[in-house]
Design a protein that fits this description.
With 485 residues, this protein is α/β, with parallel strands linked by helices. Helices cover 34% and strands 25% of the residues. The protein has 17 helices and 22 strands. The chain has helices at residues 5-15, 18-23, 28-36, 49-60, 78-82, 84-95, 100-123, 184-189, 204-216, 235-247, 301-304, 340-354, 385-390, 409-414, 442-454, 459-464, 475-479; strands at residues 39-45, 65-69, 128-132, 134-137, 142-147, 150-161, 165-167, 181-182, 196-200, 219-223, 251-253, 257-264, 267-274, 277-283, 285-288, 292-294, 327-329, 370-372, 378-382, 395-401, 420-426, 432-438. Helix 9 links the parallel strand 9 (196-200) and strand 10. Helix 6 (84-95) runs antiparallel to helix 7 (100-123) and helix 6 (84-95) runs parallel beside helix 9 (204-216). The chain is globular, with a radius of gyration of 24 Å. Nicotinamide-adenine-dinucleotide binds at residues 170, 200-206, 208, 223-226, 258, 289-292, 337-339, 370-373.
Length: 485
């Protein structure tokens, strides 16, 4: 049976660069004969971060592995193709003054290269087969892969579900089907810069796109149903981040329910209700950034006896086993925090299980940091000051505005002195409970703070450490010397 093998050979030639094509080791016929004998030690559904890491490790140890990916444009998964990497590339281009068209082109070239590298990394392992087609369970051990009229059935001793998440499109009249409405996936590659952009949702995706498009020159309005953006953060941190966005020209319509979209000669008209009144804005494009839901549609989880949660995520235990002990789920599809590095850590837990060690579980995963890539970025880990006080800690706060940190000339060298650094410390034990860093290099600094928290390094030790100069980390010498209770 010929499943997509020629299809992905063609895709290689069209979209991958020359070294990547040459690195593909085996001919289509060899892959096909491999695939025809369709029992595998491990079947991974979805080419995401966790699944591909596991597939490569198992394949290199000699196990027969199939990785099923529904789209040849998604080898490597969401992050390198339509998520973290293209958005951060566009943000970097916007920050360094590139035009939008040039930025889209550079970003497309980058993602094409990464897609090729991802494909070749798995395809060059002899015992790993990449099958390009949509997967659906037939039963608990059997998965059907379909691509056009082609069908292939594979079986696996172990199966890992790694299908990720997809955008939620709220049920607002006029939204679905409008050519002016985009998800992050298609807005990344759109070549025409919208003059007026409405962003529906002020979460991670919404804030990053708002910041980026404002820097490219769009008039951006963020609409959210909640009374404030970044509502989980401390008020002073959220206010500082909001001010950065307002300075970039972003407008906010908060506590608003969008009730309909109407196409007009001037553009898409969004009517919204706020308090007792109704108002509207007219824009050229709308980005729907209202959250992402686990991608389980059409997977046939019921046929496999795999249970899901009320929210539609694949239900897993602390070792990421589903209700079927030989089926695991990793990454966004299992619910919880949606970050690439969580999917990667999921793969470590599953690898640990498959090796029979049982030393890891999701319960030991303390302090997951995250970064919102506005300009400058906002990075966070652990408790906010508000949470720490609510939980009854004797709280000490060390905080400074970046502009006031004398011993951090890096910010002044770069001309980016906006933001603040804030540490929340347990006054009794000197342990760091949390940090919010709205600062140049915050996406790097937060990893040092997280490591300190995980290993019980005290705030005093972090303050008195030797750091290179000029760097952003040396700000810790000064910020951690300031304190209030
Ligand atoms: C715009 C945007 C920006 C982001 N920025 C960041 C960031 O800066 N940092 C960060 O850590 N995270 C970021 N994220 C989140 C991050 O991309 C995800 O958490 C991560 O990619 C999830 O990986 P995963 O392993 O769950 O699966 P994914 O990488 O989502 O892979 C799932 C794969 O499964 C395939 N698939 C789905 N159904 C089937 C099926 N039935 N058969 C076969 N294949 C199937 C899909 O095509 C996809 O390739 C961002 C997300 C978005 C949307
Ligand atoms: N830098 C990063 O690490 C990064 C970047 C982008 C995305 N991500 C991941 O992707 C996930 C999804 O991002 P997201 O921004 O789509 O979701 P999100 O959950 O972060 O935010 C969704 C926002 O949409 C709002 N919303 C929902 N329905 C609405 C409606 N009908 N009208 C107005 N507002 C509405 C919510 O109030 C919320 O503020 C994030 O949770 C994050 O884990 C991470």
């Amino acid at each position: 049976m010929r499943l997509n093998v020629r299809a992905y050979s063609r895709v290689n030639v069209r979209t991958f660069d020359r070294p990547a094509i040459e690195a593909v080791q085996h001919s289509p016929e060899e892959v096909m004969s491999n695939v025809d004998n369709a029992h595998f030690d491990l079947v991974v559904i979805g080419f995401g971060r966790g699944g591909k890491t596991l597939a490569a490790a198992m394949g290199r140890s000699g196990k027969r592995v199939a990785v099923i990916e529904r789209s040849a444009q998604m080898y490597g998964g969401t992050c390198p193709n339509v998520g973290c990497v293209p958005t951060k590339s566009l943000i970097h281009q916007a920050e360094t003054g590139a035009g939008h068209g040039e930025a889209v082109e550079k970003t497309r070239n980058l993602t094409t290269k990464l897609r090729g590298v991802n494909f070749v990394t798995l395809d060059s392992i002899n015992s790993v087969s990449v099958l390009t087609g949509r997967a659906a369970f037939v039963d608990a051990k059997t998965v059907e892969v379909s691509a056009g009229d082609d069908r292939l059935t594979v079986t696996g001793d172990t199966i890992v579900i790694n299908t990720g998440a997809e955008p939620v499109v709220p049920d607002i009249p006029g939204l679905a089907g409008s050519s002016r409405v985009h998800t992050s996936t298609d807005l990344i590659g759109r070549e025409n810069l919208p003059r007026r952009l409405a962003v529906l949702g002020g979460g991670h995706v919404g804030i990053e796109f708002a910041s980026m498009f404002a820097q490219f020159g769009s008039e951006v309005t963020v609409l959210d149903q909640t009374p404030r953006i970044l509502g989980r953060e401390d008020d002073d941190v959220a206010a500082a981040a909001e001010q950065v966005l307002v300075d970039a020209g972003v407008q906010f319509v908060l506590d608003a329910q969008v009730i309909r979209l109407t196409e007009t000669d001037e553009g898409a008209k969004l009517d919204y209700r706020r308090g007792d009144g109704e108002d509207s804005i007219v824009v050229d494009a709308v980005l729907v950034a209202a959250g992402r839901k686990p991608a389980t549609e059409g997977l046939g989880l019921d046929r496999a006896g795999v249970a899901t949660t009320a929210g539609g995520a694949v239900e897993v235990d602390d070792h990421l086993r589903t209700s079927q002990p030989h089926i695991f789920a990793v990454g966004d599809v299992k619910g919880g925090p949606q970050f690439t590095y969580v999917s990667l850590d999921d793969s470590r837990i599953v690898a640990d299980q498959l090796a029979g060690r049982r030393t890891r579980s999701t319960a030991d995963r303390a302090h997951i940091p995250y970064t919102l890539f506005l300009t400058p970025p906002l990075a966070r880990v652990g408790l906010t000051e508000r949470d720490a006080r609510e939980q009854g800690y004797a709280v000490k706060v060390s905080q400074k505005a970046v502009a006031d940190i004398v011993s951090m000339p890096k910010a002044k060298i770069l001309g980016e002195t906006r933001g603040l650094m804030k540490f929340v410390i347990d006054a009794e034990t000197d342990q760091i409970l949390g940090a919010a860093l709205l600062s140049v290099d915050a996406q790097e600094l937060i990893n040092t703070v997280t490591l300190a928290m995980r290993h019980g390094v005290t705030a005093t030790d972090l303050r008195d450490a030797i750091y290179t100069h000029p760097s952003s980390t040396e700000a810790f010498n000064e910020v951690l010397s300031a304190s209030r209770s």
